[in-house]
Design goal:
Blueprint lengths: L7 E7 L4 E6 L4 E5 L15 H7 L5 E6 L7 E10 L10 E9 L3 E5 L6 H4 E6 L4 E7 L5 E6 L3 E6 L4 E7 H17 L15
Antiparallel strand pairs: 1-2, 2-3, 3-4, 5-6, 6-7, 7-8, 9-10, 10-11, 11-12
Length: 200
């Protein structure tokens, strides 16, 4: 990965399987181009099938790294193709967003098509506690959910970095238990304690 004792903690594949983002224990997000292949065995005339299988195996060419997004371990990276928030109703345009989460309590959202880390940074969500997972939701993937190690969840509109909702501790466990119970029993899912979930 590039640094001594650097370990991959999370991997996501985007852009039709051609680009890999790797979150590491050294607070970096590294990018690898999977179109690059290892041809080191091309001059080997050995007909052993195991050697031939490795000849054109994608190995990934390190393209670069984001080094300023986080200050601690990057626990999750996730690519998502979204409908561009700036596009008018017709025609819609799509772009790929990379969400990253870290032990530093931040979730960052980048547009990896931009030429530099600074230009790619779209928004930063300050969750305030170490993050375990991040993902997208909604009809146009305009929402982002964030799960923390202290059993809390927050929901955000990623384009504006606006926090929409927080659920914590026993409230999250109770809400999710009720959703699972209702779906297993075939009941209509109505959130408990008057909570409602609406698309952004």
């Amino acid at each position: 990965l590039g640094l001594p004792k650097e370990e991959a903690l999370s991997v996501s594949i985007g852009y039709g399987g051609t680009l890999v983002a790797v979150g590491t224990n050294k607070a970096r997000i590294s990018f690898f181009d999977l179109r690059y292949t290892n041809n080191t065995n091309n001059n080997n005339n050995n007909n052993n099938s195991s050697n031939n299988n490795n000849t054109n195996r994608p190995t990934g060419n390190l393209m670069g790294s984001y080094v300023d997004a986080h200050t601690e371990e990057v626990t999750r990276v996730r690519f998502q193709t979204v409908i561009s928030p700036q596009s008018s109703p017709s025609p819609q345009t799509y772009k790929t967003i990379l969400a990253t989460a870290s032990e530093d309590g931040l979730t960052t959202l980048h547009d990896p098509s931009q030429p530099s880390e600074e230009a790619a940074l779209h928004s930063v969500l300050n969750i305030g506690t170490p993050i375990r997972d991040v993902g997208f939701f909604g009809p146009n993937y305009e929402g982002t959910w964030v799960l923390t190690g202290s059993e809390t969840m927050s929901v955000h509109h990623w384009d504006s970095a606006q926090r929409v909702s927080d659920v914590g501790g026993d409230g999250l466990r109770s809400m999710l238990s009720g959703v699972v119970e209702d779906s297993l029993l075939g009941r209509k899912n109505e959130m408990r304690d008057g909570m409602t979930v609406e698309y952004l």
